[in-house]
Amino acid sequence: MGVSTPALPSVEYDDINPGMGTLNKEPKSKGTSKRGIHFNPGDVLFGKLRPYLKNWLFACFEGVAVGDFWVLTSSKIDHGFTYSLIQAPEFQYIANLSSGSKMPRSDWGLVSNAGTFIPTNLSEQKSISSVLFGLDTAITLHEKKKRQLERLKSALLQKIFADKSGYPAVRFEGFSDEWEERKLSDLFIKGGSGGTPKSTNKDFYDGDIPFLGISDITKSNGFINNTEKHISSDGLNSSAAWIVSKGAISLAMYASVGKLAILNIDAATSQAFYNMIFDDYDLRDLVYQRLNKANELSEWNKLISTGTQSNLNADKVKNFQMYLPKNHDEIKLISTFFKKIDNTIALHQQKINNINSVKKSLLQKMFI
Description:
single chain, Adenine-n6-DNA-methyltransferase TaqI, Chain A, domain 2, 2 domains, five-stranded mixed β-sheet, four-stranded mixed β-sheet
């Protein structure tokens, strides 16, 4: 056991990025006098509470593990190999045979007695861990660049759109005109919500029509390329059925209020969304970014109707006011600029997904 000090920082569950093995804050910036398990550089921290959260860390410094951790170390095998081993499917399976329902914990009796094969050659152990550490480094690098771009975009959203003065704080060279206030409903050619599907028959969800759900919006990077559910034409309420065409903006009005995405497919939606179809994609992309700003600044909170659950009113959405450039060239420049940022963010995310897929495959094949 040990107690944290400025020279002996603590690590807690909330400090670890789940499944990534990285820290989300500088350990030495935290408070002191926290009691936990002492660890050394090279030790492996494994979060035994709710093991499915994958709170693990390869320690690069001396410190104190505060909370439900195992601190794993060995004089017989490479520490990096130990760190790789705990991520392998076989170890994860045993670790998740946990006890307890509300606060499940890995069972040391099961884990410690589980048999596994390891290379007898230390060099092979180090080679395996080196490959997996290399993939982790690449993932961390892309995650860092992605977060930097997301912070940059967030800052620019506050500066590049005009406030009530009619003039933005930052704009492209060659433009100085005052922006004009516009109502959202004047910018799109068609808008509206869908209808509740006939959910009494689950067979309706075995169709081939993509059906947009809140989870699709929350998991998206701003674009919907597929949906979790599909519905049949018989499953749509004929009185409210609307297959929203590709290119529309869908705005969540219930649950994740203010979340939005652009449809890259034709899809049916429920009344949980307000859908907007534009004939000018430059204008659509600018409106999309402006609505992102509204979401970041919680502007929708002022329009939320109170009831059994928070929701937006369609009329208030249509009457939402924003300042936009009068010059279409400026509209196009801003839209293209943000699109490049979004595309680069999406590219980093795709690379993260690809590397994770490679790592998952190797973890399945490099261990017996």
